[in-house]
Design goal:
By secondary structure, the protein is of the alpha/beta class. It has 2 domains: 144 residues, no CATH class; 54 residues, no CATH class. It is built from 9 helices and 4 strands. Strands 2-1-3-4 form a 4-stranded parallel sheet, with helices on both faces. α8 packs across α9. The two termini are 13 Å apart.
Length: 205
């Protein structure tokens, strides 16, 4: 039996998306290595769209061929209680039709709250290292309470902070280039949902 599968929001869908899918998976693998999971990492699948993440998760959960199955996706909106994962999904308008599968637990839902860009904005050292002197750090929001900020405000701030860079931030290849450089210790310190995911994975893998 396979130990664990995690279905990730990211990559792209369709026959021309293989490169982005591979880059997304590579970036998450490197992050998991930095989190200390070398030698016991789960199998990762970058699914592209959110609905594809949910569909693949439900299929794997119902099949029962792994000891742990989870999905890792944007929370889309700030969370009132980071431990109530399925309750939160039921309140998000973009996924309000998702049903909690029988036997599924909150620990099978890991969040980037509110989005992957929140992780990236949190690690100023990684951002400075990646963008060098063209980074306009003053355009970024304060590091406190980042998970309370809307995904739109975080994404807009990151765009403004890097707009003068030749490699200005964009979803896709450029986002994964930054993601794989992030320091988990910084994310644990600033982002409660990342700390939760780290705690759950340590207990499951």
């Amino acid at each position: 039996m396979v130990a664990a599968y995690i279905y990730v929001e990211g990559g792209a869908s369709g026959p021309s998306s293989k490169y982005l899918t591979i880059r997304c998976q590579q970036a998450f693998h490197k992050l998991l290595d930095r989190m200390g999971f070398q030698g016991r990492k789960p199998r990762l699948k970058a699914c592209g769209r959110r609905d594809a993440v949910y569909d693949d998760f439900c299929t794997a959960h119902q099949t029962g061929n792994a000891t742990y199955v989870a999905m890792w996706l944007d929370s889309e909106e700030p969370m009132s209680d980071i431990e109530q994962a399925w309750r939160h999904l039921g309140s998000v308008t973009t996924v309000s039709t998702w049903q909690k599968p029988a036997g599924a637990s909150d620990e099978q839902v890991l969040f980037m709250t509110t989005c992957m860009e929140t992780w990236i904005v949190a690690d100023r050292v990684a951002l400075r290292g990646h963008y060098k002197n063209c980074l306009n750090e003053k355009a970024l929001p304060p590091s406190s309470d980042l998970e309370r900020r809307s995904r739109e405000s975080v994404q807009d701030a990151l765009g403004r902070a890097t707009k003068d860079c030749s490699n200005a931030y964009a979803k896709g290849k450029r986002s994964y280039e930054v993601l794989e450089q992030l320091d988990p210790s910084t994310l644990r310190r600033l982002l409660p949902s990342f700390t939760r995911a780290d705690r759950i994975l340590k207990s499951k893998l």
